[in-house]
Amino acid sequence: MKLMLEIFTKKTCALVFMPPQEISKLWVMIMDDYQDIGNTREFYDYITSTWIDDDALIVYTLWNYYDFKNLRTNNSLDRWHHRLNSDLNNAVHPHFYVFIHAIQNDYAYNSAILSRHLQTGTLSPWKKLFVNRNARLNNLEERFKQNKLASHEYLEKIMQLIEIKSINFALPLASQPVPTEATAQQQMFALVTRRCGQDPIVRHAYIYDYSTLTQYVYVNGYLDTSRSQAGPYQGTSGFNTKTNNRNNMFWFITIGLLLLIHTSLGCSPPSFSSLSVEQNFNLYKFLGFWYEINFYEAGVDPAESYTDFIQLFQLENDVTKHLLAFSKARAPNQPNCLSPTTWSIYANNGAKMIFEKLDVTSTTILNQPLYVLKTDYDHYALTYRCLTPNYNLNQPCQQRALNLYSRKPFLERKYLVQLERYILNVLCFNSTDIIRTPFRRPFCYPIDGSGRHSHGD
Hints:
The chain is α+β, with helices and mostly antiparallel strands. Among the domains are: 75-120; 165-266, no CATH class; 272-436, Lipocalin. Helices cover 33% and strands 19% of the residues. The chain contains eleven helices and 15 strands. The longest helix has 25 residues, at 96-120.
């Protein structure tokens, strides 16, 4: 798993060197290849919304290095800072004449460098490691431009040039420690930002903890309690540095991976009375075929769960709003479709339905709350049910079931990301508990040429 995580990190960082038109496709490929790594949904969401999407927070031109002929790092600036600080004896407030002397020395140094360059045409030599790595990078880029490498091959080879330096998480916390009630994510954040502050790379770090609804602010690794506050998410997260965005992309991704692959601690299942359902719910638009994309049900063994699970919601009685949800699916490792169950549901209270029976032929009355939490009718629907006997709506539900549906055998990522975030942060599911339902042709219900079903009048 450690090796897989390292390769995943390197491939993600290698996107910096990919042609802009290929980045989105390669990122989808990376997510598909490493979907088995646990607790990555938050990280996927972060990278997609911050760096990848067309309306991302930071556009490609600020961080992409493909066909970039200038300096790719701020090492020269760091060397100048180090040289100047040495002349100033690392004083925070140097004497005026000491400062003047340091500026004069710096001018003399740069004049000598310029004079040598004008006479010989040479500059200060790079380390052999960097020369070889840069030559390899340029060679791979040329081979890709000549169509000698496919985009995925180019990504694989660039990945091998990236070095991941491990961060020592045994470092003690800063003198102003993170509160003991802070989550593991926050504690890790303090360690990472402190380590980076020593380089220094990261000056300010922000993290929003959905489990406590609190914005934490770190300055050079120290928790700034005056700026950390509870409240709704304000869109501030990540790192604020004094270096250029191109150089920081690597650190955003590497450190972001460590921060965002986590399970929110302190999150407990909500009560049904506290949940908001789909407003102005239209039952008739909801009817029709739905493909089960993800699901969870307490007590269900993933190895024994159905594949190709499709349901057809139909109105059995318009007066009582009695629904029947017919289903077709395949048993594990079986080629033929079967009809495992037909749900009986009452929907006379909008999106707050009552799950009457697991099968319409059963004599057992369940009367479980079944809420349609999210739907746009044309693409997705998220339903949530409590299995606890004699459940009190004001209490957290411990035995529960969740179904994420799509009108197609897949759900586009622009919908999936937001819904999975809701499932993890509001419903407090562990991402490892959510089971993905696979589909293969021929589908158990026939579909028309557009790949869509009719879903009611």
